[in-house]
Design goal:
With about 170 residues, the chain is of the alpha/beta class. It has a single domain, classed as Rossmann fold (3-Layer(aba) Sandwich), CATH 3.40.50. About 45% of the residues lie in helices and about 15% in strands. It contains five helices and six strands; from the N terminus they run E-H-E-H-E-E-H-E-H-E-H. The strands form two sheets. The protein has a four-stranded parallel beta sheet, with helices on both faces. It is globular and about 45 Å long.
Length: about 170
């Protein structure tokens, strides 16, 4: 494990050398980092990490994005997620898998009251509609690994929430 300074990511290129696969789940919130900080973390850091990974020999990059990601969106969150998806695809990996989960169900150390309320509600809804509105983070992690162990022929594969559930069960 290498600890890097994302503000000086280029100085840590050696940490990205010699890996066949790259997994990226990097992200923050607008509330925590402000609009500019959110863009810097969720788009700029991710795109730079992808470029360093490719330069270091990475063949398959797996990016956790978000349901609804769209570079043309009027909503900052979805627009930034769409922009970074486009940037990562443009890097030129042999394989690029993008996962677009819905609301992530997980336990957090920090307090996010509105997210907690949404998770409680969506956790209950998941009993009736298990693949529509949410996904446990453990399922996303299993799907990320599975897509690398069972790569398809596609250069770019986008997995929406239902596909993440299905692959995460395998």
């Amino acid at each position: 494990q290498a600890v890097v300074d994302f503000e000086r990511l280029g100085e840590h290129a050696a940490a990205f050398q010699g890996h066949d696969v790259g997994f990226c789940c990097l992200g923050t919130t607008r509330a925590k980092a402000g609009a500019d900080g959110f863009v810097r973390v969720d788009r700029d850091y991710v795109a730079q990490a992808a470029e360093l990974a490719r330069a270091g020999g990475c063949k398959h990059f797996v990016l956790q994005s978000s349901r609804g990601a769209n570079a043309q969106s009027r909503f900052l969150y979805l627009r930034v997620k769409g922009e970074v998806e486009n940037q990562v695809q443009a890097v030129g990996f042999d394989h690029c898998t993008i996962l677009r989960p819905a609301v992530l169900l997980c336990k957090r150390q920090e307090s996010r009251p509105m997210e907690w309320i949404a998770q409680q509600f969506l956790g209950a809804v998941a009993w009736v509609f298990p693949t529509v509105y949410s996904v446990p983070v453990e399922t996303v992690a299993r799907a990320m690994v599975a897509c690398v162990l069972q790569p398809g022929k596609e250069k770019v594969k986008v997995l929406e929430n239902r596909a993440i559930h299905e692959l995460g069960k395998a």
